[in-house]
Amino acid sequence: MTRTGRLLAASRAGWHSFLRRRTAVFFTFFFPAIIVVIFGLLVGTEAAGGGLFAEPPGWYVAGYLAVVVLFTPLSRVGSEVARHRTGSQFEKLATTPLRRWEWLLAQTAVNVVVIGLASLLLVALLVGGTGAQLDWSLELLLVVPFVVTGVVLFCGVGALLGSLADSQDGVIAASNGLAVPLLFLSEAFVTREMLPGWLPVELSPLTYFSRGVRLVTVEEGVEGTLVPTVWPLPDVLAHLAVLGLFAVGCFVVAARTLPRTD
Amino acid sequence: MEAVTATDVGRTYGETVALSGVSLAVSEGEVFALVGPNGAGKTTLVRALTGTTDSEGQVELFGVPPRQVPRERIGLLPQDFGPPDRLTPRELVDYYGGLYDDSLPTGEVLDLVGVADSADSYYENLSGGQQRRTCVATALVNDPDLLVLDEPTTGVDPAGRRRLWSVLEERAAAGTTILLTTHDMAEAERLADRVGFLAGGELVSVDTPARLIARHGGESLLHVEGAIPDGLARDLPFPATVTDGRLTVRDVSPADIADVTAVLEAGDVAYDSLTWREPDLEDVYLELTGQTLSEGGVSG
C-alpha cells in the first residue's frame, strides 16, 4: 500500500477521468491521424526534391511522433492542473498523504499509456498509408523509452504551464505558443540544413527526441536519408540521456511548482 | 489537549486584509463553528489553519505546524471543492480513500452521507446537494481526528442537511474534533459547542451558543397584532410599546404570556394573532456583524 496504493488510486482516477471525456479521447487519437493524412498523404514527400517535405517518408516518423509526444501532454496535463486549481483539488490533496510529485507521476503514467496507444496508431497509419519504411528490428523498441521520456518531459512542461497560467484558456494558448515553434525548430519536420546555422537547436529537448527516434526508426541506406548507415547505439543513448536530463529537470521543477496553497 | 491553536494569525492579499490578529483554540473532541458574513475571512482562516495558505502568526494542529501533522489525522472539505466531475461518488470516495493506508469502507461512507442510491452516477450529473454530500464523504473517508468543513451543507436540502448533521454529531460523539464554517445559524446552534464570529477578518466573539445569545441576542419579544389601544401598554407588568395598533412586549418568558392575554381580555381588547419569539444565534449574528435585515442580503 502506501506510495504504490496512492499512485494507483490517483492513476485510476486520472485514467477514468480521461476516458470519459469523449471529445478529448476522440481528438487525442484523431489528431495524429489527421496530421498523417494531411502531411503524409495529401502533401506527401518528394525525396531528395525541394521544399519542406523533401526527405523519404520514414524520415518524418520522428516528426509525427514528436507531434503526439509534444502536444497531448502539454495540453492535457496543463488543463488538468488548471481544472484542479479551479476546483480547489490541490487544496484538498495538500491535506492528504499524496505528494505533489506523486500526483504528477500518476498523471504522467496515464499520459504514457494514452500517448503510447496514439503512437502505435500513428505508426500503423504511416506505414500503411504513406509507405514509410522503418527499420523493423529489435532495436526499434528503443522508440519506447524515447516516447516515455518525451511524455515525462512534456507532462512536466504542461504542469508548469498549468501552474503559471491563470486559466484553462491560458494553458491552451501557452501550450500552442510553445509547441508550434518547438516542433519546427527541433529537427522534427525541418532539417538542420534548412534552419539558420546560428539557431541553437540543441537547446530544445525535442531535438534530442527527433534525432534519437530517427536513428532507430529509419531503415539504413534508404535513398536520400540523412541517417548514417551504421546503427549508432552510443549516439542513440546519448540523445536519450540528454532527453532524460531535460525530463527529470522539468518533472522536478513542475512538481515543486504545483500549487499547494491558494 | 488542543486540537487547533491559532495565535495572532493574519493574512493579507495585496492591500486587502483578509485576517487580522485571529487567536483561537479548539479542544480535542470539540465542535467549533465559524460564522460571519461573506468576505469575513472564514475560508482564509480555514486555509490558514490547515496550512493551505501562507499566513502570519502561529498555527498548530495537535501541537505541531499544520504541514507537519500526519495527514491521515485531517479531513478537509474546501469551500468551493469540485472533484473530477466524470467520476462517480463511489469512484471519488475510492480515490480519496485510496490515498490513505486505512480508510472507511466506501459503501459505508456513501451510505452515511446519503448518496448510496446515486453512487454510480457521474458527479456532474448529481444534484447540487448530492454533490456536496459526496464532497463531505471525501472528507470523512479517512476517519480523521480533525474534520475541517468549509460550508458543508451549502446547497443541501433540509432532509439531507439533517442527515449530515446527524453524521457530524455521531463523529463528534466518537471524539472527532470538528471545525466548520456556515451561514446557517441553526446549523451552528445545533452542532457547535462553541461559535466564533468573524467580521472584517477579526474574531469578534467566541463562546457557547447559549452564552452568545444571552450576551448579544437581546430580549425575547411578544408581538400582538390587532387594534391595540395605545394606553394598554401601561397596564402590562412588562416593558411594552404599541405602534400602529401592534403591541410589542419585551423580555417575557412563555409563562408570562398568560399575564399579557389576561390584561388584553380584562380590557376587552380583541387581537388577531400573538407571536412569541426568543432570541437566537441569528440575532447574535446581526448584532455582532453590524448587519440589519435590509443590508447584506440577510433576509428579505
Major sheet details of chain A? none
SSE order of chain B, one letter for each helix or strand: EEEHEEHHHEHEHEEHEHEEHEH
Mean pLDDT of chain A: 86
- Averaging pLDDT over every residue of chain B, what do you get? 91
List the total number of helices of chain B. Answer: 10
Outline of chain A: globular
Shape of chain B: elongated
Question: How would you classify the quaternary structure?
Answer: heterodimer
Give a verbal description of the structure.
- The complex is a heterodimer of chains A (262) and B (300).
- In chain A, 68% of the residues lie in helices and 0% in strands.
- By secondary structure, chain A is an all-alpha fold.
- Chain B has 300 residues and is α/β, with parallel strands linked by helices.
- In chain B, the strands form three sheets. A six-stranded mixed β-sheet of chain B has the order 5-6-7-3-8-9, with helices on both faces. A four-stranded antiparallel β-sheet of chain B has the order 11-12-10-13. In chain B, strands 2-1-4 form a three-stranded antiparallel β-sheet, with helices on one face.
- In chain B, β8 (194-199) and β9 form a beta hairpin.
- In chain B, α2 (89-97) packs across α3, α2 packs parallel to α4 and α3 crosses α4.
- At the A-B interface, α1 and α4 of A face β5 and α2 of B.
